[in-house]
Every structure is written in C-alpha cells, then in structure tokens.
Amino acid sequence: MLFAMFPGWMHSLPKSGGWLNTVKVFLGFLELALAFKFLSNADLVLQLHLLEREVFLVIWIAIFGSLALYLFGKISLPHDSPVVHISVGRLILGLLVLSFTIYLIPGLWGAPLKLINAFPPPIEYSESPMGVGALKDSSIATTVLPEGAKYGPHQLVVFDDYDKGLVYAKKVNKPIMLDFTGFACVNCRKMENTVWSDRQILTLLKNEVVVISLYVDDKRDLPKGEQFVSKETGSVIETIGDKWTDFMISKYKTNTQPLYVLTDLKGNSLNQNHPTISYVGVQEYKEWLQVGISNFKK
C-alpha cells in the first residue's frame, strides 16, 4: 500500500539478493510459529490435549531460538549468501528475538507471560497447571470440588454446566457470574490474565460469586434427546457450544465473547444499568461486580 502511494520509494530499495532470502526465512519462522498457534486453537476447541501449554511453549522456544541463531549467522540455509559480517539491524533483531526466547522459558514453570498471554494455551490447559515440577498448593490439594466443578484460571473453582452451577449457587446462596467464553477466544484470555488476576477482582470471584463458564465453541455433541431447533435462529442445536451460544443470543441478544452477566438464583440480572459487560479494565469490572453483589445481598 505504501509503495503504491509513494512509487518513488521503489527506487530506494536495494537490489534483490541474500538479504531478501533472509527476509523470507525470517517470515517463514514467524509463519511456522503462527501455524502452531492456530493448531493449538483447534486442539483447545476439540479438547484433544495434544498441544498443551508446556508442549506449545517448548515448540515456540525452539522456533524462536533457531531464528535467533539464524540471525546471528550460526545457522545457514541453502540459498543464503555467505555471512561475512552481521549488520547492525540484523544484530538488533537477533537480540530482540533472543530476548523473547528467554522470556518464554519461565512460562514452563508457571510464569503468566503477560506480554503474550492471549497466544499460548491457558495455564489450566496443562499437565502441570502450577508449572513444571511445582507442587500443588496444599489448600488446593485438600479441597473437595463441588460436583460438576473444576479449577479454572488462577485456580478459581468454576462450573462449565449451567444447571450444576445453579444447584451449587443455591446451596451456598451466592450470586451467579455467567462467563460466556470460548476456548479460542483471545480477548477472553486477556481478561482472565489482566483483569481476573487483579488481587481485588480475584478475591471477589473466589469468595462472593459462583462462576459458570459457558464455552460457545465446545464441539462435544449433545445427547440426541437434548438436541433441539433454536427458536431464535431456527438452526439445529447439536453441540454443547451451540447450546450456550443459543442461550446467550436468545437471553442477552448478543453473540460477543467475553460476555459477563451477574444474576440472582432465578436468572434475573443484578445490575439493571449494565446487565452485561464485556472487555473492560480492572476498575470498571470491579465496580460492576460490586454493584451486582451488593444488590444480591439486599
């Protein structure tokens, strides 16, 4: 686009040669890394557990580590020109790639990697949610999960079935926070890693509400007896994800993820001014939670 707007710039480009092959190789490494990112999305949606967090990070460390070695001239490919010296630009780029590779390594031991938190699989999608070689928190290890619950982001107790979450919420008499999310939802992971991780938010989520996470891209089939035709869209609801998507559209007239709703035990919204909330900052999210929780206790 820029060259089309300023065609004179074409004359300033150097002639094609070894440098252009370096550009192609660099982009090839990036394409390979992104290919594994999209493969990991498919793995998440299908819940195959083939590209869990540790495996994904090891692959990215290998890819970007090899790219750094290539930029430093330690690896050469058949069409490369001989590297007599490394230019300043290539050296700086190599150092940036090497720094990024080193940054990834602590992720194997449970580091949140907030700079890229939306790209790797979430920490809970892992063989070792607390990090490779880490021991589970003793309080978590001795906790008996309610029926139908599991550990979600930041070791939150969450439900992925509305009915089971509702039964538990009635038992403990707490409001429900519906979390319409997706396995491959980038903004959902950003919210969990940048907003839910805040100490005050996490305290509210752990102690004041029952979190029910409904995955709209869950591809598991519904039992034949539970499949139905949507009154809202007219489509056949065949999977669990279809069921939660139809619930969100028919009830809240939107198909946006993430979408958060605070309700009482009868499904009524606890925040009349803002019945739903989506991708927001810590302060706005905290105020929204506090209003709903306060209304529930009245």
How would you describe this structure in keywords?
alpha/beta; about 300 residues; elongated; 8 strands; 10 helices
Radius of gyration: 24 Å
Task: Write out the strand line-up for the largest beta sheet, numbering strands in chain order.
Answer: 1-2-4-3-7-8
Q: Could you report the average pLDDT, rounded to the nearest whole number?
A: 88
DSSP helical segment count: 10
C-alpha termini separation: 59 Å
- What spatial form do the alpha-carbon principal axes imply? elongated
Provide the succession of SSEs.
Answer: HHHHHEEHEHHEEEHEEH
Q: What is the oligomer described by this structure? A: single chain
Major sheet size, sense and barrel closure:
6 strands, mixed
Please give the number of β-strands: 8
Helix content: 40-55%
Helix/strand structural class: alpha/beta
- Give the strand content: 5-15%
Give unreliable regions as ranges: 137-142
Question: What is the structure about, briefly put?
Answer:
With 298 residues, the chain is of the alpha/beta class. The chain has 10 helices and 8 strands. Helix 3 runs antiparallel to helix 4 (88-104).
Please explain how this structure is put together.
The strands form two sheets. Strands 1-2-4-3-7-8 form a six-stranded mixed β-sheet, sandwiched between helices. It is elongated. A hairpin with a 6-residue loop joins strand 5 (228-229) and strand 6. The longest helix has 29 residues, at 18-46. It has 298 residues and is α/β, with parallel strands linked by helices. It starts with a helix and ends with a helix. The model is unreliable at 137-142 (pLDDT under 50). Helix 2 (18-46) packs antiparallel against helix 3 (53-71) and helix 3 runs antiparallel to helix 4 (88-104). The chain has helices spanning 2-5, 18-46, 53-71, 88-104, 138-141, 162-172, 186-194, 199-207, 240-252, 282-297, and strands at residues 149-151, 157-159, 176-181, 210-215, 228-229, 236-237, 259-263, 276-277. It contains ten helices and eight strands.
